[in-house]
Every structure is written in structure tokens, then in C-alpha cells.
Amino acid sequence: MPSLDADQVVPRFRHTSVLLEGAVDALVHDPNGIYLDGTFGRGGHSRVILSRLSEQGRLMAMDRDPQAIAAAGGIDDPRFQITQRDFARLGEFAEEQGVYGKLSGVLLDVGVSSPQLDDPERGFSFMRNGPLDMRMDPSGGESAAAFLARASEADIAHVFKTFGEERYAKRLARAVVTRRAETPFTHTVDLAEVLKAAHPAWEKGKHPATKAFQGLRIYLNGELDQLDAALDAALEALAPGGHLVVISFHSLEDRRVKRFIRHHVRGDTHLPRGVPVRDDQLSRRLEALGKGVRPSDDEVDINPRARSAVMRAARKRV
After folding, report:
1. Backbone dihedral region of 22: left (phi > 0), alpha (psi from -120 to 50 degrees) or beta?
2. Partners of 109 in the β-ladder
3. How high is the pLDDT of residue 271?
4. How far is the C-alpha of 152 from the C-alpha of 164, rounded, in Å?
5. Which of 94, 289, 296, 308 has the fewest Cβ atoms within 10 Å of its own Cβ atom?
6. Per-residue confidence at 80, pLDDT binned at 50, 70, 90?
7. What are the distances in angstroms from CA 221 to CA 60, 121, 311?
8. pTM score
9. Gap between the Cα atoms of 112 and 9, Å rounded
10. Burial class (CB in 10 A: 0-12, 13-18, 19+), 90
């Protein structure tokens, strides 16, 4: 089976994958290896990964979004397979495929994708009116509308502050609860307008509902817990020498990734001071592959949503 040329990577594809070449460069170190794309999205990274693999190479992919699974139908390649599930369960998938502890690389592109943001029916965007949903897998879990209808003011404020890093979380939560007493929230622009009116300090170039919407999305989809579980699972599923590459889009995610890599690079730092130990006794399981990488100015010009992205990579120690 001939590999895809890099310049043939889906010309009809509308989603622009962030740090595309850089992420695949960091990930694919063995063209004969087995790789896992834990966040298929619309397949931008997966297609470039396939273009770098030999006939013996293999790529597995995952996504919780049924629309992403449907998009994967456009890849006709015997080296490729995909399953619908969240990336926190990547270890389970690797075990089912008999490659647990044998993966040459794992890629995680964290957060919401452009097609999810751009589709009003998904309810992620405050710029496009649609049902107030925000679930990455609409078949399960609680929608944003359902949460806002039943949550206490304190709980709503907690979500805005903890997951959205919204400074005025209490004020915005109070506005939501006051308004819902009259009319429940059912659509995105309706909520965005209430948040906009209640926000006392708009940041230049940023919609005042941005952080609250982010907080709702992250909370409803359990994104931070999913990320923590996925990082732990990826480390165990990788083969010695395998690469872990993670792209994140805001500080909550990046701090977790940075902390995870640093912890496994340093190893056990809780030993008593002055105790003589060998390197192999410190349980150092990762080597960092450079520092965090951000998109170039050219990439941000082409894809403004890439501006906050950070990519971090590490190698599992042999």
C-alpha cells in the first residue's frame, strides 16, 4: 500500500490542524511503528502521519465525536483503523488491539475542534446561534442548557471560575440565575448576550462570554479529568522509546501536560535528602523532547485559532 504524499492531505478538508507538520515530526520516529491519534477530529494529523509511515506502519485513531468518526470514512487505507470513544480510554483500546506497551507514539490534540465550533447545532459557539448543548458526544451526558437550568448559583460560579478562569464568575452566575427565573436558557446567543451585559470589564479583542463558555464546555465534557487519565494511559501504552506529543490550547490544559512531563522526567523527588540512589531507582520514565512549541506567525495568520496553542513532546525512557 503506497503512502499518501504530504501535499495530498485532503484538499477538501476544511478543518486546519494546528502545528500539523511540527506535531507529526515530533511523533513519527519509526516509519514501521504503530501510532495512536487519540483525537482524530477531522483527520488532519492522521493523514499526515499516514504519509510518513511505511507499508508496515500502522495508525489507530480515536474520537468521542460521532461526526469525527463519520469523517474518518474518507480514509481508505488498510493501515488505519478508528474507534469511537474518549481518549482517556486509549489504554483499553490498545489492549483490545494487542499493542498495549508497544505503541511507537501517541498524539493528543486537546480541546474543541473548529468544525465543532463552527456548527451552530453543536452549541459550542457564542457567535453562532444554536441549541445550548456543548457535548462532544451528544448521545450522553448533560447539556449546557440542562446544567444551567438546575445548578445553583454557587455551582455555576464555580464552573465559570475554575474551568473558565473567569474573574467575574460570581457576577455572571448571578445574572444567569436571575434571568433563568423568568425564561430558561435554550440557545447560545441568548446566554452570550446575558453574560455580555453582566460583564463589567471587557478584554480588547475578546468576547466577554468567552471564558464562561470555555468553563461550561470543559466542565460538561470532563475535559481536564479526561486529559489526566489519557496522559497516564499513554505513558503505559507506549513502548520504550515511544513518543508522546500533546497540543493544548489554554493554560489549564498546558499546566497539566507540563506538570505531567516534568514529574516523569524528574522521577521520585520525595526521597529523603542526602540518600544515595541510582538513576534507575528514581523511576524517571520520560525524557523531554525540547521545550513547549508555539505556532509560527505565519500559521497564526492563516489560522487565528492557533494563536494560543502549545505543543509538548516527550520520549519514554528505554
Report:
1. alpha
2. 247
3. 58
4. 17
5. 296
6. very high
7. 23, 17, 22
8. 0.86
9. 21
10. buried
Contacts of 285 (CB under 8 A, 6+ apart): 235, 264, 267, 316, 317
Helix (H) / strand (E) element for 60: namely strand 58-63
Residue 238 corresponds to which cell in the numbers above? 507506549
**Strand 310-316 and strand 238-248: pairing?**
antiparallel
Asked if 249 and 309 count as a contact pair (C-beta separation under 8 A), the reply is: yes
pLDDT per residue over 277-306, tens digit each?
Answer: 555 556 799 999 999 998 888 888 887 777
- Angle, helices 20-27 vs 44-52, to 10°: value is 50
Q: Which three cell numbers stand for residue 274?
A: 542526602
Kindly state the cell numbers that stand for 90: 486509549
Give the residue from 99, 83, 81 showing the smallest Cα distance to 91.
99
Q: Which of 65, 80, 149, 70 is nearest to 113 (CA)?
A: 65
For 300, the grid coordinates are 497564526
